[in-house]
Amino acid sequence: MTKNPIILGIETSCDETSVSIIQDDECGIPKILSNVISSQTDIHKEFGGVVPELAARSHVEKINIIAKKALKESGIKLDKISAIAATAGPGLIICLSVGLNFGKALASSLNVPFIGVNHLEGHALSPKLHNKLDYPYLLLLISGGHSQFLRVNELNDYTRLGTTIDDALGEAFDKTAKLLDIEFPGGPKLEEFAKKGNSNRFDLPKPIINKGGCNLSFAGLKTAILKITRNISSQKEKYDLAASFQKTIEDILYIKTKIAFDEFLKNFPVKERTFIVAGGVAANNGIRKKLIQVSDENHFVSIFPDLKLCGDNAAMIAMVGLEKFKKKRFDNLDLPSNPRLALDKKAKFLKGAGVQL
Ligand code: KG4
Ligand code: ZN
Predict the structure, then answer these.
(1) How far does residue 235's CA lie from ligand 2's centre (Å)?
(2) How far is the CA of 91 from the centre of ligand 2 (A)?
(3) Which residues lie below 8 Å from residue 90, measured CB to CB, with a gap of 6+?
């Protein structure tokens, strides 16, 4: 076995089939030897969203090819792999099973440890692929399925400070994009639309902005946009609505992040004020700028993953695998996939009508 462990990571929780090989390094930042990502956008486009059965079928068709490609690009032979890490949840269960079972079979045949990874922990640790980072830090995780402020205490040790009580931020972007007739996946394209519009044209609501601490809510925003879209038709008005949506989100995140900073500092004294923003929506340029601004104003150092590592990818899964490998936290081959895996297992369920904030 090589001195610096080499981890093969696998990600199939939703609509990206990805395999990555990373190697530990003395400098504290692992080397990404390969990170092959195959997106299924073309398959789901005509349905306007991810169709689980089609996603799983595509993972089955591609996983072997993607794994071979990742190995070839890395220049690493299979017998040099120290451990296999695969996403165990959360995600679509039939999609998770493909990568998890492939990973288990590979680990078993190579006789190396198998490590199940929480997909959200992958996002949480993704900045570690390019930055030296010490625990604890404050994390804002904004993806297609989750929006949470968390204190990252240690590997596998999270305290949730706030969460969305309805839609995730990526979901709000995608649903708004759909209402504006932007084709799937709408989030990134909506940002382009927004650049062409007047952000002061529509006054949109900021749900629970004055209550609920750093909890978030986006569903009311979507309803307001639905009502406006019924009365607009020109392209210019659509650009203006996209710009107003983008600005409203930036303002909500600015205010809620300030609250999260206070909660992070109040409850847990820290030496370093580090703020990590991760997940697919962390690729949004306007949101990045606004969160850098609020961090600077409050003396936090803000760190974002590389743009390529914001969306789903296997390098972030291998990153968690590497940290677990060093602590010898291995899993048995009967580890089940868990579509509802959480980061803070003690946190209260805060979704749905009548939720008490
Ligand atoms: O983390 P991710 O790749 O998958 C999940 O784990 O959910 O996040 C995907 C989400 C989608 O909702 C997508 O529309 C959104 O991230 N997204 C963006 C941008 N790029 C991706 N939302 C806003 N602006 C972007 N530039
Ligand atoms: Zn994700």
Answers:
(1) 31
(2) 9
(3) 13, 118, 119, 120, 145, 338, 339, 340, 341, 342
136 lines ligand 1 (CB under 6 A): no
User: Domains along the chain?
Assistant: 6-130+308-326 (3.30.420.40), 137-304 (3.30.420.40)
Distance in Å, CA 304 to ligand 2 centroid: 15
Buried b (16+ CB within 10 A) or exposed e, 286-307: bbbebbbebbeeeebebbbbee
Q: What is the full per-residue pLDDT of the chain (357 aa) written as tens digits?
A: 558 999 999 999 999 999 999 999 999 999 999 999 999 999 998 898 899 999 999 999 999 999 999 999 999 999 999 999 999 999 999 999 999 999 999 999 999 999 999 999 999 999 999 999 999 999 999 999 999 999 999 999 999 999 999 999 999 999 999 999 998 889 999 999 999 999 999 999 999 999 999 999 999 999 999 999 999 989 999 999 999 999 999 999 999 999 999 999 997 778 899 999 999 999 999 999 999 999 999 999 999 999 999 999 999 999 999 999 999 999 999 999 999 999 999 998 888 766 777
pTM more than 0.85 = yes
